[in-house]
Amino acid sequence: MFQQSALGTSTAFGGPRTTASNPKGFEVVSPPEDSISSLAFSPAALQQNFLVAGSWDNNVRCWEVEQTGKTIPKSMQNMEGPVLDVCWTDDGTKVMMASCDNKVKCWDLASNQTVQVAQHDAPIKTCHWIKSPSYSCLMTGSWDKTLKFWDIRSANPIMTINLPERCYGAAVDYPMAVVITAARNLIVYQLEGKPQEFNRGETNLKYQHRCVAIMRDKKNSPIGYAVGSVEGRVAVQYVNPAQPSDNFTFKCHRVNCANNSYQEIYAVNDIAFHPVHNTVATVGSDGTYSFWDKDSRIKLGSSEQQEQSITRCCFNHSGQIFAYAVSYDWSKGHEYYNPQKRNSIFLHPCYEEMKPRSKSSS
């Protein structure tokens, strides 16, 4: 059981950096038994680091991450269907779990109990906790083509917004939310006062959007977003660009083949912005992660190729740790699924690697 007294005060992530003998990082013990759909580190309210992961095995697991990189399993909760997303409340006391059973449950970590707090008519793809100066609520996006906002003390949503298509992903950084749907729709919402549509975003991406993340300026205010597609390409978009050239796309997660005569193209599965440096990480179906300086428009580095896809990634609140999940993402179909290959989560010390190469202004 997760014990409240286990919350420590250390935030450093020490121990050896990744080396030739430890190229992947620190492996998380007792990983999920099926594909990993979601990862989230505890918020800054908890000075110690905890990591939760949702999986297609219907479970959400929680680990404590020690300074050495060692992970300690704390507890696990079960849903009635595959878990598609997880998120923390801002105070770090609860975790929300969104599932294919059309429900979101709230996991109270101190009591280790769960209670249902949201309901849709189809699987729930995303859940995000919104903390504003005037309210706190849960935002859920579903394949039933709705976005709902919940006071988790009430059985009915505070508000329901109809989407043009099934929700495929979302990002929240108050006062901004960005939602991507099937048919390449992208909607930006402003959350101040009452959530409402701000605009319909357009990108130069020609194929299905797969993931989205919000970026900040040097004053730590949200100013735009990055969207990844199945075509191995990312679009960086500003809400109010100073000039049109500020918005751009770049290629990633592509593998040169046959003496560079052609490229194999892989989906961008997840995007995460570094909480301090505002640089960005991408992970893909090619089994690699890459770090990018969006302002200088250069690649900071990339990993060796894993045996399976990298499905999700996230940074801890101080930006010291990069977590990434290695599991099959079904991008090549059922015939490439190998049950003998295990699912893994790795923790990579990243603070220095993620520093921008120049002092370009946002």
TrEMBL record:
What are the boundaries of the region Disordered?
A: 1-24
The UniProt entry, under Pfam families, shows: WD40
- Which UniProt keyword terms apply here? Cell cycle, Cell division, Cytoplasm, Mitosis, Nucleus, Repeat, Transport, WD repeat
Q: Which domain of life is it from?
A: Eukaryota
Record GO biological process: cell division
Q: Which GO terms describe its cellular component?
A: cytoplasm; nuclear envelope
Query: What InterPro entries does UniProt report for this protein, alphabetically?
Result: WD40/YVTN_repeat-like_dom_sf (IPR015943), WD40_PAC1 (IPR020472), WD40_repeat_CS (IPR019775), WD40_repeat_dom_sf (IPR036322), WD40_rpt (IPR001680)
Q: Which PROSITE patterns match?
A: WD_REPEATS_1, WD_REPEATS_2
Q: Where is the composition biased (Polar residues)?
A: 1-22
- Predominantly, its location class is cytoplasm
Q: Where are the WD repeats?
A: 29-66, 76-117, 117-160, 268-293
The subcellular location is: Cytoplasm; Nucleus
Give the family from UniProt.
Belongs to the WD repeat rae1 family.
Name of the protein: mRNA export factor
**What species was this sequence derived from?**
Megalurothrips usitatus (bean blossom thrips)
